[in-house]
Design goal:
Layout lengths: L2 H21 L3 H8 L3 H9 L8 H10 L4 H4 L9 H24 L1
Helix pairs in contact: 2-3, 2-6, 4-6
Length: 106
């Protein structure tokens, strides 16, 4: 892997971590909203699995964190149908809000 690729991986993983922290979501809450294990999100945020991140997951993270996919697209080049991704991301974000609301009510 060349230096430029490593820099882009690091940039994307840092952007994901910073965006999550800016929203105030814990790693567990964000992972739960996306339907993944917290360790999976950790691997994205550390760059360990950033190459394998599915585009729909990246879109879900963007919506969940209130960002545009372009904010995270520094390392990606081929993006799938944005409308379909946006719809899935919004669905995941609504689920996260519902779960956090229910958790706070108990």
């Amino acid at each position: 892997m060349d230096l430029k690729t490593n820099e882009r991986k690091k940039s994307l993983s840092q952007a994901l971590r910073q965006a999550r922290k800016a929203t105030g979501l814990s790693r567990d809450a964000a992972a739960r909203a996306l339907g993944i294990y917290p360790t999976e999100l950790t691997r994205y945020e550390t760059g360990e699995r950033i190459e394998g991140i599915p585009f729909f997951r990246l879109e879900g993270l963007a919506v969940l964190y209130g960002k545009k996919l372009d904010d995270f697209a520094t390392w990606t080049t081929d993006l799938p149908d944005a409308a379909a991704l946006r719809k899935e991301g919004k669905r995941l974000a609504r689920m996260a809000v519902r779960k956090d609301t229910k958790k706070g009510a108990t």
